[in-house]
Amino acid sequence: MTTSSQLTDEAVLDDLGRRLARTRLERNLTQAELGNEAGVGLATVQRLEGGQPARLTSLVRVLRVLGQLEALELLVPEPTPSPIERLKLQGRQRQRAAHPRSADEPTADARPWAWGDEHGDDA
Questions:
Q1: Tell me, what's the pLDDT at 88?
Q2: What is the pLDDT of residues 36-45, one digit of tens each?
Q3: From the centroid of its chain, how far is CA 108?
Q4: CB contact set of 31 (below 8 Å; sequence gap of 6+)
Q5: What is the pLDDT of residue 57?
Q6: What are phi and psi for residue 53, nearest 5 degrees?
Q7: Are 51 and 10 in contact (CB under 8 A)?
Q8: Cα gap 115→2, rounded to integer Å
Q9: Comparing 59 with 117, which gets the higher pLDDT?
Q10: What was the pLDDT predicted at 34?
């Protein structure tokens, strides 16, 4: 079954429970073993697989043991920044390429510093 917004909450939970049970069986785990490894009770695993309400922390623990915790990234993806936020994050971008200086060419830092009145100007 494909999960869609037209399904009832009960149908979504039932489908999720079937998927969890199938994944558990593919990993060759009993409900008791899964509950033990996840740190939840057998009844909690049975509730999850039966499509009954359970605590979100229990679902996270079970998904971690089943190697499916990364799937939560698809459930609620990280929001992408708006175009204005992306511009702010980019900062200033270079507009021009710099002219490479040769080793012989003196730079402003290479000249000795002077007050400007050392050129014989006696004002």
A1: 74
A2: 999 999 999 9
A3: 46
A4: 24, 42, 45, 46, 49
A5: 95
A6: -60, 140
A7: yes
A8: 79
A9: 59
A10: 96
Decide which of 77 and 4 is more confident: 77
Q: What is the DSSP string of 86-115?
A: HHHHH-PPP-SPPPPPPSSSPPTTTSPP--
Return the structure tokens found at 34: 């899964």
Q: In 10 A of CB 65, how many CB atoms?
A: 21
**Backbone phi and psi for residue 114, each to the nearest 5 degrees, phi listed first:** -145, 155
CATH class as words, domain 9-75: mainly alpha
Tell me the mean pLDDT in the region 104-121. 65
Please, are residues 66 and 23 in contact by the beta-carbon 8 Å criterion? yes
Length of the chain: 123
Q: Helical H runs in 3-82?
A: 9-26, 31-38, 42-49, 56-65, 72-75
Q: Is the pLDDT of residue 52 over 90?
A: yes
The CA distance from 13 to 47, in Å, is: 10
Distance CA 70, CA 81 (A): 22
